[in-house]
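In response to a reviewer's request, we include the raw inputs and outputs for one of the modeled complexes. The two entities were modeled together in a single run.
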Amino acid sequence: MTTLDGLAHGLTVALAPSVLVYSLLGALLGTLVGVLPGIGAMAAITLLLPITYYISPEAALAMLAAVYYGAQYGGSVASILLRLPGTPQSAVTTLDGYPLAQQGRAGVALFTAMISSFAGSMLGIVILIALAGWLAQLATRFGAAEYAVMMIMGLVAASTIGSGKIAKSLSMVVAGVILGCVGTDVNSGVQRFTFGQVELLDGVNLVALAMGLFGLAEVIGNIRKAEVQGPPAGVALRQLIPTRDDVRRLFAPISRGTLLGGFFGALPGTGSTISSFLSYALERRVSRTPERFGNGAIEGIAGPESANNSASITAFVPTLTLGIPGDPIMALMLGALVIHGIQPGPMMLEANPDMFWGLVVSFGIGNLFLLLLNLPLIGIWVSMLRIPFRWLYPAIIIFVCLGVYSVRGSTFDIIMVAGIGVIGYALAVASFSPALLLLGFVLGPLIETNLRRALLISRGDAMTFLERPIACGFVIVTVLLLLFPLIKKLRSLQTR
Amino acid sequence: MFDHINRRGVAIATVMAASLLSTTAMAADWPTAPLHVFVGFPAGSSPDTIARLVANPLSKALGQPVIVENKPGAGGVIAIQQMLAGGADDYSFGININGPLTTAPRLISDLGYDPATDIAPIGLIATSPLVLAVGSDFPADTLSEFVDLGKADPGAISYGSVGEGSGAHLTAELFADAAGIELFHIPFQSYAEVTTSILAKDIDSGFMAPSAALPQVQAGAMKMLGITSLQPFPQVPDVPVMAGQAGLPDDFRAELWNAFIAPAGTDPEIITRLNAELNTILARPETQEKLLSIGWEAHAGTPEELADRIVQDTAMWGAVIDKTASNN
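The model returned the following structure tokens for the whole complex.
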């Protein structure tokens, strides 16, 4: 089946009333759960799973997929307005989104996030169609050695995103890495820093960490301010519309973000997070005015938002072409297929072309719907900022607790988020960047596990990182990234 | 922590005494409230699907809702702790995998419960064997060839598992010990990672659920050399059983299982009733088909049989853990 035949065929599948209705329903629900901080796609999909027994497999997968990418749209809302990210990707969006909202330009920030999400998804679909086979091959070439050095590169590249002193940035990354060590060590089974708490065996809850460091810290920080200032002034409609300058700034970051997201998304596991951070670091590096980043640069929203949406589309590549789920949500979607008697695996594409092409077309329809749904909602979201602090902040705390609890039904995690909130406030006072802590927390354990695994596989031979071509490429890029500031400095000395 | 256990022990004893006094009165109109079933894995996982396959018909049979409470974490241990937290109240139950009932006391410090004294078995639900899978171009087509290769070059063949102390890890070590070979362990976190690494030729082999290996085998990317059950498994009927082959003993068996359990001290009449209901549900063809579609075989039995299974497996896996610990 050629691509055009496939698309035409997919269109008939995706436009079938049941599939269409369920994918729109999924997109709507995805937006809603995405907006609610901490209650992510995972919770929504597990709730929807029983319903999928009663509908066709195409409709089931289209709906679950729509929840997955729809949540990426909604996730930016709480990050921008309230500094309440539920995932590391949306933590990146807070970096410039929240300052913009504080400046009364929340509408512009949301508009940027929505349009970038849409563009990232649509281009991600193009990448999926054009390169699915190649990306699937790539995924099977990535062993432990490649993952280890790729993540080291990600950590090095993104370590510079915090504004301020380099020592402060690095200390946050290291703190994150150390925090990531908590729990059962994959390689040895040893329990590290668990203090006899069974709840800590699986590590610190990521959602609790993100919401504590950002959202709760912000609430604590504003308690005093709230009494003095009262709520911010209302937002005029005029302020929702981005300026011509804003729009011009969006094209390049979206293209770069989409490519990054499209590439990393196809690698099972970490695509979305690493591509968001890399995109942010890249935009800051190529910008002529890097000092605007962290103070409301819309490129800092556009790049990462397009990256994580593009990644959420290409994440379907290993799932659909190899039957290998990249993350727990994908595993759930494959589970839904198994219930319908469809065996996920390398043969799925040949055996069920309807499924693949129908799903691809439903991605397009779903994203178009999400854009049309979300643009008019921007005004409503922004008006949330007019809610008086004395109502808004207790509500935020309730949502934070609900979100954290929804992850695994643990009251221990709620106590933990409270403690992390206090730490987050202390960090904010001392102007440390919590986003970097989150980055270290996510990448640190992955680097450790993959590094040790790669060395186990090579029986202790460290040359494995240089002998394997893809790994070697990442090593070279990492070294260049480290040398770049030095070279720049030497040049400036020469010219002087 | 010990203090905590003692207090819990006293609480359980008190409830036991109370339930002994009022057994007949209580069992006659039980259940009068919803039942809670604590499951150690998130919604959508196979233990959760198994729990729901039992909970829904059970609810119809008992005329009360049976609520599945997902308390994931620590390989199922958190759900056992949560089930025990309220004491034996005749309404808290658990559906869990073998790990928290057999190997957990050896692998987790401060477990907070003892499977031998704190758990009342209701019945086995389903079992799943593991298959030994290798990449399609691995130079062995049968289990004997695999063992010969292993003997020729001890420690050269690597295998992936889903973590230190996981069923896949312990099964591989049990197999290696029985076959008299040495395998090289590389721990991963999921079967998806193990599969990818076999496809990428990073590792040679892995013990995994038949349903994880099957699609790759059908696509010609992997081979299955043997299965750890005593009988061929319906999902992969062509894969030969390992027992009696390549120098393995005739009773070589290593299976994962899911079981229905209650806190120790639960009214024995309730246990008997639930065991009967469970076995009725498991006897239905539609339950068996659904279980098989997710890679599990229905396996009815008495509470005593489950208790025996816990004791046997604890001893079997304990010996493997001792052996791997002394090797390290």
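As requested, we also summarize the result in words. Chain B is about 50% helix and 20% strand. The two ends of chain B are 29 Å apart (CA to CA).
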